[in-house]
Amino acid sequence: MFVQRTLRQAIKAHSAISSSSSSSSATYSAKLLFSRFYSAASATAPLDASKLEIKASKNSKSLQENSQLVFGKTFTDNMLTVEWEAGKGWGTPVIKEYGKLQLDPSAVVFHYAFECFEGMKAYKDKDGKTRLFRPDMNMKRFNRSANRIALPSFEGEELTKLISEFLKVDDRWIPKGRGYSLYLRPTMIGTQESLGVGASNKAMIFVIASPVGPYFPSGFNAVNLLATSENVRAWPGGTGDAKVGGNYAPCIRPQLDANKEGYQQNLWLFGEDHQVTEVGTMNCFVFWKNEQGETELATPQLDGSILPGVTRDSILALARQWGEFKVSERKFTMKDIVKADKEGRIIEMFGAGTACIVCPIKKIHYDGLDINVPLDPSDKTSQAGKLTKRINDAIMDIQYGDVEGPKGWSVVVKAAGAAPNAGEMGGEKARDLAARAAPDATTEAYEKGSLEGGDANEGDDDDDSDGDDMGVEFVEDAGEDDTEEDADDDAEDAEEGEDDRAGKEGNGGTGGTANS
Ligand SMILES: Cc1ncc(COP(=O)(O)O)c(C=O)c1O
């Protein structure tokens, strides 16, 4: 009775606030309130990091030399898993030895692509501390992606805590040195064993990690793009703004075709007017003099078909903070690019994403025409424009903790040991297990701690510049560089020995599409 009444009150409050208020934070609070009552009413267990069990691997695989790292080929000793069931909620999170999943062949992930994932990195700073970059944004996007395919929502902050614990256990795998990082792949799949097409009543989150090197191991290498309109990556109302696996496989055939013609990536167009949308699996930026003669950094607006990249958002925020030129999220078409090229107004173009940060563009093939995009006119040998390089350095400085950066961007995962609320597994036991799993970790690494530099949900009010708020709480019990695999060979053919772009040199390279 009480729950029903309070739930009704929460719904009323939510509707009142969301219809009258112009404040996104008020709307967000109402949604959160609603979701909490909803959770209470449905009485399912939330994702809870304090339930973590650490059953770390007793076998320490040997580490690879930094120079030998190939994107997404080597994985750490352990993985994180947690299962969900409709009516019950989230189960016990476990850190256990990296290994194969056992799933029934009828599991819905195999048939209807119930899969979403994230791509994020952990960095070692010069003091040996581990840092995450804006994990709250990855968690929100992960939740939005899950919601889009009717998979369960979860508390982002709790998953960030769990990932932090995972990082402590596999600390020795985080490569040191600027440009090196541990790539994290949080993934959610629907595991219901049924061929019925409907919401999955079972799901699993797993997180695996792979040490990676710089995307451009020997300096930038600008890419050639094939502007593609006959195949479309995404469309308004589709799933382009969600990081669901189903978006990626259909892009590989067009990418292979582009590779065969000597282009590393597709420039994805949309609509009769050939709007520019994304580059491979990166967001697309153009720096130019616009038709009004203003110097402008422009990227397509988030219209539902563009993935709201963490890097994209960070670039926009930094460029706005610099205040030196106009910064726009708006539509632009190939006609605009061709005209700007003819009038000599393009200054630089680049793709942006976690794997590379920025990827300079040097040529676009469109409609039988080659558009040569300037790099750095003051340095003929340079493979990246001045702004592209500046953005890269600014973001890297923050990721590696060399520069403070906006609040909550660089989140330090404190030294290994259980999180303050790591329940039964806290204290001695967790430290012992972590010590066994991470023999190389320093004594300092066993200090107790969890996150500093911002609560994972803290930024909710201010970092939704993509205009997309949580929007994921209402689906409880509703019952995320990029298939970085082996397009290597074709990509290499496409390179025609011309450069040593990532994926070819193999360090940070994704081997397939440019980013992840
Ligand atoms: C399609 C697509 N666009 C853009 C991005 C860049 O996003 P982020 O900056 O969060 O890595 C990615 C990678 O996640 C992507 O897969």
TrEMBL record:
BP GO terms, sorted: L-leucine biosynthetic process; L-valine biosynthetic process
Sequence segments annotated as region (Disordered): 420-516
GO molecular function, one term: branched-chain-amino-acid transaminase activity
Catalytic activity: L-leucine + 2-oxoglutarate = 4-methyl-2-oxopentanoate + L-glutamate; L-isoleucine + 2-oxoglutarate = (S)-3-methyl-2-oxopentanoate + L-glutamate; L-valine + 2-oxoglutarate = 3-methyl-2-oxobutanoate + L-glutamate
Cofactor(s) the protein requires to work: pyridoxal 5'-phosphate
InterPro entries: Aminotrans_IV, Aminotrans_IV_CS, Aminotransferase-like, B_amino_transII, BCAT-like_C, BCAT-like_N, BCAT_family
Origin superkingdom: Eukaryota
CDD domains attached to this UniProt entry: BCAT_beta_family (cd01557)
Record EC number: 2.6.1.42
Acidic residues bias: start-end ranges: 455-499
Protein family according to the UniProt entry: Belongs to the class-IV pyridoxal-phosphate-dependent aminotransferase family.
Xref: NCBIfam families: ilvE_II, PRK13357.1
Name of this protein: Branched-chain-amino-acid aminotransferase
Organism: Dissophora globulifera
Name of the gene: BCAT1
